[in-house]
Amino acid sequence: MPASASLVRSSGPAEAEAARSRFSTDGYALLPGLLTTEGLQVLRQEALRLEQDARRRDFRMASMGDSPRHMTTLGGQVIARESALVRALYGDPVLRGVVAAVTGERPVSVPDVLERHVLNILHCRGDTHGAHTDDYPYALVLFIEAHLAPADGGLLEYVPRAAALTDLDTDKARTAHHRAGDAYLLRSDTTAHRVAPLTRPQVCRTVLNFAYTSHTAIPRATPSARELYG
């Protein structure tokens, strides 16, 4: 099924301005209910299908401060081959219009297909996506499955305008809770961030992460993506 505007909703002027203001200040903007009811249903079905090809990862990432990875992932190289739906949604004009409205820049597809669109799944107690920054400036994270209560863990933790991973363990860090159908946009190359561990069994956090760059971004590269998705 091809992506269409019915899978995501565009923001109204007031909502877009509020998101852009927060993004400018914090490097983070919540996009509540970005996925339509149809979009969430279709992406859930697609994620379940793609999950059959995903791989379990349990290690510490030396290039990101020895932070832990306990999660199940599927890299963009597999998704590009197996999912016409995700490929189309990544380039969807409505979705990219939302990114442009928040960032003030036209989003550009990242050149490395491995990082372009990835599936991240936390589904065991203790699962976590440890401290890191990304190689590309913009991460649009779409919530397909999400725990219902902040006490279940899986919260986004981030430090506005700070790339030092150690700042995540200080009072500079902020947290954000999301529900299925929500999304957030993060200035992910200069904002230290992580996903807190799940605190109980039988909860699941499944997200699609879309990476975008811009014509003004300075390219950078770390081994982190290939360690996690290669």
3D architecture notes:
By secondary structure, the protein is an alpha+beta fold. Helices cover 27% and strands 27% of the residues. A hairpin with a 5-residue loop joins β2 and β3. The longest helix has 14 residues, at 13-26. The mean pLDDT is 95.
The CATH topology name reads Jelly Rolls
Overall mean confidence score, pLDDT: 95
Q: Output the CATH homologous superfamily.
A: q2cbj1_9rhob like domain
Low-confidence stretches: none
The main β sheet shows up as:
12 strands, antiparallel
Q: Please tell me the CATH architecture by its name.
A: Sandwich
How do the SSEs run, as a string of H and E? HEHEEHHHEHEEEEEEEEH
Extended strand count: 12
Rounded to the nearest angstrom, the radius of gyration is: 16 Å
Count of folded domains: 1
Strand content: 25-35%
Number of helices: 7
State the separation between the terminal residues, measured CA to CA.
27 Å
Helix/strand structural class: alpha+beta
Percent helix, as a range, is 25-40%
Name the features.
230 residues, alpha+beta, Jelly Rolls, twelve-stranded antiparallel β-sheet, 7 helices, globular
Outline the secondary-structure elements.
Elements: H1 13-26, E1 28-31, H2 37-50, E2 55-61, E3 67-74, H3 76-82, H4 84-90, H5 93-103, E4 108-109, H6 113-116, E5 117-122, E6 128-132, E7 138-145, E8 156-158, E9 174-176, E10 183-187, E11 193-195, E12 205-213, H7 224-229
Antiparallel strand pairs: 1-10, 2-3, 3-5, 3-6, 4-12, 5-12, 6-11, 7-10, 7-12, 8-9, 8-11
